[in-house]
Design a protein that fits this description.
- The chain is of the alpha/beta class and about 300 residues long.
- The chain contains 11 helices and 11 strands.
- The protein has helices at about 1-15, 20-25, 30-45, 60-80, 100-115, 130-135, 185-190, 205-215, 230-240, 250, 285-305; strands at about 50, 55, 90-95, 120-125, 145, 155-170, 195-200, 220-225, 245, 260-265, 270-280.
- The strands form 3 sheets. Strands 3, 4, 5, 6, 9, 10 and 11 form a 7-stranded mixed sheet that branches. It has a two-stranded antiparallel ribbon with strand order 1-2.
- Strand 3 (about 90-95), helix 5 and strand 4 (about 120-125) form a beta-alpha-beta unit.
- Helix 1 packs across helix 4 and helix 5 (about 100-115) packs across helix 11.
- The two termini are about 35 Å apart.
- About 30% of the residues are buried.
Length: about 300
Amino acid sequence: MNNRLLLFLETIETSNSISEAAQKLYLTQPYISRVIKKYEQKYNVTLIDRNSYPIQITPAGHLLIKHLRKSLQLERQFEVEVHQFQNKHFSTLRMGITPPLGQNFNLTILPELLKKFPALNTETIEIGTIEAKKAFKDYQLDLFVGNIIHLPNTECEQIYTDKQVLVLSKNSHLYHPHKKEIQVSPQELQQLNHENFIVVDSQQGYQEIVDNYFYEMGISFYPKIHVRDSITALKLAGKGLGNMSTCLEAVQNTCYSNINYIKLPSDKVKIDFSITTAKTNKSLSLEITYVKDILKKLFISNILVY
């Protein structure tokens, strides 16, 4: 439960309200409130200031977050270091992949990996770069495929650079019904100001890059809808519910109609797909190297397919 409490407090820390935090976590607001209230009563302190907007973590709450993080890091570090004493047959390779590529990743990697290492256990999760960075710090990941992560306990190898586009729904002021790719001037882009935008919560770091790019051009979007992955966001854009940003490969799929896209400058907005691995897990070095070899050969053809 302490791990879940830490997740709740950290999410509230970056949200305007408990309701917004609940939405990001795909949980109900009353449930999160009950959990936090339970620990407030346990420690006889107030952990969050419910009267402020945006909601604030109290000094006691920040102190609890600090100690929960330290406790979790020690636990994860022990799990990693104790691997050298464990029976190899019970080793688990923990892998993360940026959404929404989890299914393609599993179908490509797991058959070959488990054929080579039949005694290996695996865990695969779809996880954003910010969450993956935290997971590496907490010794919860062995390998991640997504944006570049630089940490003292990880090493990173770039495998692909993805071009990005701004997707316009049919309700955008700039939408052209008989085109897919359009080119617009900086002046025309101003018409996008305050249009509805679909935000992918698992890609917060990437979203900040996109937001900053348009902010420098004097354009701001209204975050109307929050979803977990970019495929869902793209489908909603096709229904006219808002604009969004994604990779060029995704919009070139013929199944997505009723949208336009504008190519974004690669020197300003891009995704560098990389393989990040934990330096600490020496016991699974052969398995990790094998996964990396598969990714280098098949990432573009088998995994980066929308």
